[in-house]
Amino acid sequence: MIEARGLSKHYGAKVAVDDISFSIRPGQVTGFLGPNGAGKSTSMRLMVGLDRPTSGTVTIDGQRYRDLAAPLAEVGTLLDAKGVHPGRSARSHLRTLAATHGISDRRVSEVLEQTGLSSVAHKRVGGFSLGMGQRLGIAAAILGDPRVLILDEPINGLDPDGVLWVRQFLRHLASEGRTVLLSSHLMSEMAQTADHVIVLGRGRVVADAPIGEFISQGRGETVTVRTPEAAKLASLLLSGASPNVTLEPLTDEGFTTQGLAAAEIGGIAARNGIELHELSPVQASLEDAYIALTRDQLDYTSN
Ligand SMILES: Nc1ncnc2c1ncn2[C@@H]1O[C@H](COP(=O)(O)OP(=O)(O)OP(=O)(O)O)[C@@H](O)[C@H]1O
Fold first, then answer.
1. Is-contact 121 81, C-beta < 8 A?
2. 215 within some domain
3. What does the alpha-carbon distance between residue 185 and residue 54 come to, in Å, rounded to a whole number?
4. Would residue 175 count as lying in a domain?
5. Number of separate domains in the chain
6. pLDDT digit string (tens) for 152-179?
7. How far away, in angstroms, is 17 Cα from ligand 1 center?
8. Rg (CA), the chain
9. For ligand 1, is residue 16 a contact (CB within 6 Å)?
10. In terms of domains, do 133 and 20 share one?
């Protein structure tokens, strides 16, 4: 569990994180979202003691990061995949980390295997592709078998196989009861990986909800309707409807509606003898919900 209480970080006059509170629970993948400059990286840095809060606290399983006796064994982090000595091999990089915590060579081999790096373990990290570097970053994060993982953009630069691997791997780690927090700009990927989302905007929490709830609260149900009597059905749907109901014409004999359930539209059409050629609810996407929520949250003030 990662808990932030009244957490703030100011850089001079700039408020990067503004009095935020949240709990990131074990057993699920939590996605950290927000426009550029919203405060995600700063929050993650505060979680792992790379920065000190201006006020408030953030704890990992009840303790501040800097009070943890064996950090690698409690929190795995991927905050900057490039922070590795380029002349070292993957194995020697992991061995160096392992040595600080008395972690065995066997465990190093195990994580190289788990992250698909065994065959390149002896190669210089400097020659690694971005994707291999990300895998090495994840290998380092899980080296100490931590209960909590904090990963900033872990799928950046990965090919589709790599993305799928990270998704399945993170889901597996969460299913073992670990706390998994990741940030990503790729909405479709986040939608398939996260169980819960926390959205930041201008340093504040603007949403904290299970992903299904977050998506459905976006703009209400969208339905595509096609009928040769589009104008008649449209006026029937709008008469007496709440102001939240909107209609957008389609080019060919139809429209999309927002704020009405498909069953309501079908019922009104049937009662009025209107022939329907299509009545299909459109699956809302995480991206739609996210864009609707953050439209006003862009950090225009960043410099
Ligand atoms: N060391 C710093 N000094 C001054 N301002 C900073 C510093 N670090 C971050 N900021 C500012 O704080 C705000 C939040 O930045 P942060 O990097 O946490 O956002 P983010 O949500 O991670 O953005 P991105 O998606 O672009 O990585 C931004 O306006 C940024 O310019």
1. no
2. no
3. 27
4. yes
5. 2
6. 988 887 888 888 989 999 999 999 999 9
7. 9
8. 24
9. yes
10. yes
The answer on 275 and 190 residing in a single domain is no
CB 149 within 8 A of CB 142: yes
Tell which atom from ligand 1 comes closest to the C-alpha of 302: 29
Instruction: Determine the atom of ligand 1 nearest the C-alpha atom of 38.
Output: 21
The CATH number that applies at residue 94 is 3.40.50.300
Residue with tokens 């459109």: 282
Asked if residue 257 and residue 186 are part of one domain, the reply reads no
**Residue located nearest, by CA, to atom 24 of ligand 1:** 36
CA pair distance 30, 1, nearest whole angstrom: 11
Residue-range definition of the domain harbouring residue 267: 222-283
How far is Cα 244 from Cα 220, in angstroms, rounded to an integer? Answer: 9
Let me know if residue 135 belongs to a domain. Answer: yes
Q: Is the minimum distance from the CB of 80 to ligand 1 under 6 angstroms? A: no
Query: Quick check: 76 and 143 in contact, CB under 8 A?
Result: yes
CA dist 198 and 87 (Å) reads 38
Is 10 within a domain? yes
In this predicted model, what pLDDT tens digit does every residue of 17-69 receive, in sequence order? 999 999 999 999 999 998 888 899 999 999 999 899 999 999 999 999 988 88
